Amino acid sequence: MRQDIVFDMETGDPDDALTLCLLATHPAVVLRAVTVTPGTRAQVGMVRHLLARAGRSEVPVGARNPESEKESLSAFHTKWLGALAPAAPDALAHEVLAATLQQYPETTLVTGAPLQNLRLLLEQHPEARLRRWVAQGGFAGDNLVAPEHRLAKFEGKRTCPTFNFNGDPKGALLALSSERVERRELVSKNVTHGVAYDEAFHERVRPHHTRTAGLALVFEAMEHYLKAKPEGKLLHDPIAACAAIDPGIVTWAEVEMYRARGEWGAEPAHGTQTFISVALDRERFFHTFVGDAPGLDTGAVSPA
C-alpha cells in the first residue's frame, strides 16, 4: 500500500519544487495535498503548473496567506518555467491540512518550509492529530553523530541554526512538544548537506528519468540549473521526502530537541517519539529517489 503524504513547502529554494515533482508521481506515494508558505498567488500558480504537468491537477493546494505581496519565488523558478499565471488556493493551508488528516488519518506530513502552517493546524484545529511528521530541519551534533559520519563543515558543533525551524521557532517548539504529533522524524542538516545533485548525480538519474512524469520534471529542472551552477544543488528537501518514503535510508537516534541562542541541538533521550538523522545510506537514498528500490510499491515502515 502506498503512503498518503502532504507536502508543506516554500519556493525560495529550488529543492522544494524538485521535491514537489518527486512526490507527485513517486510509485510509493499518493500525494494528497500541498500547502505553501506564505502562499502568494504567484507561488500557488507555480505549484498548480507543476502538478498539472505531472498529471496531478486534482491535488488540493492550500496557502497560509494568499494575499501576501512578498516576492517569494526564486529566480530559478521563472528561468526554468517562464512567466506563469497566478492562481488562488483551494483554501487556507491549515484548513487543507485539517481536512486531509480527517479524510486520510494515516497521512504523513513532510515539511520543507518554516512551520507556520503546522503551527496553525495545531492552534486552530484541536481535534487534529498527526500520525507522523517528517521535517527537513533540526541539527544533530558531535554528541550524536559518529566521527565517520560527520561532515567537515559541522565538525566540533553540538548546535547550529536551521532555517525551517528558525523561520517559526514558536511553531517548531509546539510541533516538537505536542502530544497530537505522534511521531517526529527530523532529517537534519548534518545529513542533508552531504549530498548534492551535481553533474555526476544527474548522469546517474538519466537512465531513470522517464520512469515517472515527476522525475522527468526533476531532470528537466536540473538540466537548467546545472548549466548555470555545475557544482550542483544540495538536496535538503528531497532527502527528507525520501526518508518519509523509506526511513531505512537514514540511521536514526531518539532525542530531545532544544533551542539555545537561536541554534538547535539534540540530546539522546527515550520515549520522546522524536528521531533525528545521524547518518545517510547514499545508495539507498538514490534508489528511493529514482523509484527503483525493492519494496517501494508496498510502502515503508517508520523507524522503531
Would you write up a description of this structure?
- The protein has 304 residues and is an alpha/beta fold.
- The chain has a single domain (3-293), classed as Inosine-uridine Nucleoside N-ribohydrolase, Chain A, CATH 3.90.245.
- The chain contains 12 helices and 13 strands.
- It has helices at residues 14-25, 41-53, 75-81, 93-103, 116-124, 163-166, 169-177, 189-192, 199-205, 213-228, 236-245, 282-290, and strands at 3-9, 29-36, 61-63, 91-92, 108-111, 132-136, 159-160, 184-187, 196-197, 233-234, 250-260, 263-268, 274-280.
- The strands form 2 sheets. It has an 11-stranded mixed beta sheet, with helices on both faces. A two-stranded antiparallel ribbon has the order 9-10.
- Strand 2 (29-36), helix 2 and strand 3 (61-63) form a beta-alpha-beta unit.
